[in-house]
Specification:
Shape: globular
CATH superfamily: Metallo-dependent phosphatases
CATH topology: Purple Acid Phosphatase, chain A, domain 2
Radius of gyration: 16 Å
Largest sheet: 5 strands, mixed
CATH architecture: 4-Layer Sandwich
Length: 206
């Protein structure tokens, strides 16, 4: 079982394409690529944490959210509430394995704090704990020696990032690097200078 993280898919949200410069012609195309890329790397038996802003800008958000959730093959999908999510809606919350505004986790001895928002300090932040966030769509300046990172789709080529990949990025940050030095291609972590820019195109069936 592999643990993955993502944030800010904004399923169904036409305006996010313009706001964030996403390379899609329509919300339908964006949704298709996001779902394909989630299912290409996250297996049914894996665990996926979505750090907020699941879907919006759709006529019936509950029914839309149910449809989007059904398209994700992973059975264990946890939602960290974002500012665009209806945290008071019990039916919306029931679509996910769990929901929380802030969540402290520990995997193989590594402590993590999950929140939709970036933090300056968090539980055990001075003892090696990491904090993962979304909300800022890759526009927040990274602070040196602060072990947190944006896991939003706009930072990672619309793929979820695995815990092991997060660990690799954090090790790079310890060497005075930045998370933005990396991206994902076909679910694999690569340095940005090692790739050629091009359109967002998935091969058939991916």
């Amino acid at each position: 079982m592999t643990v993955y993280f993502t944030a800010d898919p904004h399923f169904g949200h036409q305006n996010i394409i313009r706001y964030c410069g996403r390379p899609f012609a329509s919300a339908e195309e964006m949704d298709r690529v996001l779902l394909q890329r989630i299912n290409a790397v996250v297996q049914p038996t894996d665990t996926l944490y979505i750090l907020g802003d699941f879907c919006l800008g759709v006529p019936d958000r509950l029914q839309a959210a149910k449809w989007y959730r059904e398209q994700i093959a992973c059975r264990q999908v946890h939602l960290i509430w974002g500012n665009h999510d209806p945290s008071e809606d019990a039916e919306f919350a029931a679509l996910f394995s769990s929901t929380a505004h802030l969540l402290n986790l520990r995997f193989a001895g590594q402590r993590l704090t999950l929140c939709h928002y970036a933090m300056r300090a968090w539980d055990k932040s001075h003892h090696g704990a990491w904090q993962l966030y979304g909300h800022t769509h890759g526009n927040l300046r990274e602070e040196p020696l602060l072990w947190n990172m944006d896991v939003g789709v706009d930072c990672w080529n619309f793929y979820p990032i695995s815990l092991e990949q997060v660990a690799q990025v954090m090790e790079h940050k310890k060497q005075n690097g930045q998370a933005r030095d990396w991206t994902l291609q076909a679910g694999q972590l690569v340095r940005r200078e090692a790739i050629n820019p091009g359109p967002v195109v998935d091969p058939p069936g991916v």
